[in-house]
Write a structure and sequence with these properties.
CATH class: Alpha Beta
Largest sheet: 6 strands, parallel
CATH architecture: 3-Layer(aba) Sandwich
Shape: globular
Structural class: alpha/beta
Strand content: 5-15%
CATH superfamily: NAD(P)-binding Rossmann-like Domain
Number of domains: 1
Radius of gyration: 17 Å
Helix content: 40-55%
Strand order of the largest sheet: 3-2-1-4-5-6
Low-confidence stretches: none
Order of helices and strands: EHEHEHEHEHEEHEH
Oligomer: single chain
Number of strands: 8
Number of helices: 7
Length: 222
C-alpha cells in the first residue's frame, strides 16, 4: 500500500474524478503524469497538486478518441520514464440521452475514447508497466457497464461504450493472470464532485447509505 515514489499515470486528470485522484495521490509522494484533452485544465490541476504538497507533475495532452494523440502521448511518457507503476484509465467522453439524432462524430468519439483509445493506450505503455515491480492497471468503468443496468439519462452509445470498457478490464484481468500485472475495475454510479482541500471533500465524509456517491468515495475505494 506504500505509494511513495510510485510513478502514476492518470488519464482524464483535468477535472472531476481524475483531478480528485491527482490531488489525493500527490501528498502520498507519487510521481504523477497527468493526461487530459485540455491543456488549460492540466495547467490548473498541476498548480493545485503543488499547492497540496505534491511534486510538480508532468502533463501530457491526450485525446483518447484520436489514435494519433494516443500514440503521441504514449511516446511522450516513454521519453519521460523507464517504467510506470500505476495506470489509472479514467479518461472518457460523456454523451447523455437526446430526443434528436446524435452527430456521427459524437458517437464515434464516445465509443473510441472508452474502448479503442483506452485499449491502445494500455497496449502502448505496456512495456513501461512490465518494467515495474508492482504494476497495476485501474479502469474506471461505470454502473452503466453492468448487466441489466438502467439506462437512466445516458445515451445508448455511452451505455454500450462503458459495457465494452468493463469487458476490456475483464479481458486484461484474464490476460494478466500469472503475471505481476493486475487489472482492477471500479464501476461508479452517478457522482457528485468533491476535491481534496475543498469543503465538498470534508462534507463527503458524512455521506450515509442511500446518499449520492462522490468522487471521494471512489478515490478511497481505489
Amino acid at each position: 500500500m506504500m505509494l511513495n515514489q510510485k510513478i502514476v499515470v492518470v488519464t482524464g486528470a483535468g477535472r472531476g474524478l481524475g483531478a480528485a485522484f491527482a490531488l489525493s495521490l500527490a501528498p502520498l509522494g507519487c510521481e504523477l503524469i497527468l493526461c487530459a484533452r485540455r491543456e488549460e485544465d492540466l495547467a490548473q490541476i498541476s498548480e493545485c497538486v503543488v499547492n497540496h504538497g505534491g511534486k510538480i507533475p508532468k502533463i501530457i495532452q491526450l485525446d483518447l478518441s484520436d489514435v494519433a494523440s494516443v500514440r503521441a502521448a504514449a511516446d511522450s511518457i516513454a521519453n519521460m520514464t523507464e517504467y510506470v507503476d500505476v495506470l489509472i484509465n479514467n479518461g472518457a467522453m460523456w454523451l447523455e440521452s437526446s430526443d434528436v439524432s446524435y452527430a456521427e462524430t459524437d458517437v464515434l468519439n464516445v465509443v473510441n475514447a472508452a474502448i479503442t483509445g483506452t485499449f491502445l493506450f494500455v497496449q502502448n505503455i505496456m512495456p513501461l508497466l512490465k518494467a515495474s515491480q508492482s504494476p497495476d492497471v485501474l479502469t474506471i468503468g461505470s454502473i452503466s457497464g453492468l448487466p441489466n443496468a438502467a439506462l437512466q439519462s445516458v445515451s445508448v452509445p455511452f451505455y454500450a461504450a462503458k459495457r465494452g470498457q468493463v469487458a476490456l478490464a475483464e479481458g486484461l484481468r484474464q490476460e494478466f493472470n500469472g503475471s505481476p500485472l493486475r487489472s482492477i475495475l471500479i464501476n461508479p454510479p452517478y457522482l457528485d464532485d468533491a476535491l481534496p482541500g475543498e469543503k465538498s471533500w470534508i462534507d463527503a465524509s458524512a455521506r450515509v447509505k442511500g446518499d449520492r456517491g462522490t468522487t471521494r468515495d471512489i478515490v478511497e475505494a481505489v
